[in-house]
Amino acid sequence: MLALIREVLMIKGGKAKRVLVVAAEAPVHVLFIGSFRRLGVLAKAGEGCRPFDQNRSGFLMSEASAAVCLEAAGDGEVGGVVIERMAMGADATHLIMGDDCGQTLRGLIEDVIDGRAVELIHAHGTGTVANDAMELRASEECVEAVGGMRPAIYSHKGALGHSLGAAGLVSGVINRMCHQKGRVPPGLGERFMPMRSVEMNQGATRRKVQRSLAIAAGFGGAMGVIGLSTPLPSD
Q1: 45 or 215: which carries more pLDDT confidence?
Q2: Which residues, at least 6 apart from 13, have a Cβ–Cβ distance to it below 8 Å?
Q3: Which of 7, 123, 131, 144 is the most buried (most CB within 10 A)?
């Protein structure tokens, strides 16, 4: 995610006209799996990753890659998907855990939303007890229902696992597809956490996604949030 933000800044700063951002991670190795198991963040044996489920117990590690080609948007361009806003931050509370209050993440989300409606929040959503509670709280404090419809919250890690360094770019690619297809993938869980300002559905839902967020976080407290939008003629 931070690499994607970096390349957007290059284009905005006139240092490049078109850039290719690539992320790949292959951590499914006994050393990595053993290390993460000792940290206590992997799902219990026989259980999958269940982001925002009341009985979540952690994530499953996976391998993934993604590539995004960025270029400057043309004046008056309509119908495409653009990176509208972005924010980076750091939470130095703990080496592997974030601030329970989610103060840093909440500030980033507020900056990217910029007081406007959003239809989809693609959360970091690791399926761990601490992360999901913090992230849900931070997200709900920044959004509100529009026209009686609450923003959808989703994490691809329930279906694709956690690909570590590639996960952020994968989130951005999936958001782009949600904009284009008008569908939000299902959340994988049996009993979702109580939600006040957002909603998660067990089935894929048809939803016009005009604006969306993608959130990524990593060890050491690095965080990034991007806001995607589909420009309308009046924008």
Answers
A1: 215
A2: none
A3: 123
